[in-house]
Amino acid sequence: MGGVASYLMKHYAEPVRLAELAEKAHFSLYHFIRVFKKEIGETPHEFLTRCRINQSKNLLITTPLSVEETARQVGYGDVNTFIRAFRRLTGTTPYRYRCRSIL
């Protein structure tokens, strides 16, 4: 599963279909998710979300991109979904994170 994790880390901004990853690993979707979680410690979706949010934190601090553009850059098509995921993992909104980090 380390190869799948590396793939997700490199391709976090692209649309990811877990069924395709499972097929490439020669697992059913449900078995793939179970094995991934056992080996990596989180589900593929949780892992991908964490990769995207970590990259967005970097973009928020180092670029002048808007929150909307940052969301697109890390693979979110909907800014509200991005903000909810960001808040869930960091405890704050992207805007507040940027403001606090710049000070």
From TrEMBL:
PROSITE patterns: HTH_ARAC_FAMILY_1, HTH_ARAC_FAMILY_2. The keyword DNA-binding applies. InterPro entries: Homeodomain-like_sf (IPR009057), HTH_AraC (IPR018060), HTH_AraC-typ_CS (IPR018062), Tscrpt_reg_AraC-type_HTH (IPR020449). Residues 2-100 form the HTH araC/xylS-type domain. GO terms for molecular function: DNA-binding transcription factor activity; sequence-specific DNA binding. It comes from the Bacteria. Keywords: DNA-binding, Transcription, Transcription regulation. The keyword Hydrolase does not apply. This is Helix-turn-helix transcriptional regulator. It comes from Candidatus Avimonoglobus intestinipullorum.
